[in-house]
Amino acid sequence: MHKNRIVNGKYIGFHDKSNLPISKGDFVRIKEGVKYHSMKDGQYHISKKTYVVKVDHILTGCQWMENDEEVIQNPEVSWAGTGKYWNRADINDVEVV
After folding, report:
1. Which of 41, 58, 73, 89 is spaced 20 to 30 A from 13 at the CA atom?
2. Angle made by CA atoms 73, 79, 85, in degrees to the nearest 5
3. Under DSSP, is residue 91 helix (H, G, I), strand (E, B) or coil?
4. Strands 69-73 and 2-3
5. Is 7 helix (H, G, I), strand (E, B) or coil?
6. 62-79 pLDDT per residue, tens
7. Which residue from 74, 93, 58 is spatially nearest to 3, judged by alpha carbons?
8. How much is the pTM?
9. CA angle, corner 19, sides to 56 and 93, nearest 5?
10. pLDDT per residue as tens digits for the range 13-33
11. Which domain holds residue 31?
């Protein structure tokens, strides 16, 4: 069984950075309705509008077992948001500009 967030899309679980379509410095589009995490309050949010951000770094994703369940974390793009707090979104939910 898969635990955690949505586990669909092309990039599921760990991927080496060299195999991902996005890298540091790229600009990506965060569409309205995309789920993202903000370090400003430590919560997940849904974007209320579409906007373009510059990727600061990539989290490569991972997989592990927890209480006999496989936990999957997809790769994520991270950018500096309002107030310089880090935000991150699943790489499957953004598009390169």
Report:
1. 41
2. 100
3. helix
4. parallel
5. coil
6. 999 999 998 899 999 999
7. 74
8. 0.85
9. 60
10. 999 999 999 999 999 999 999
11. 2-96
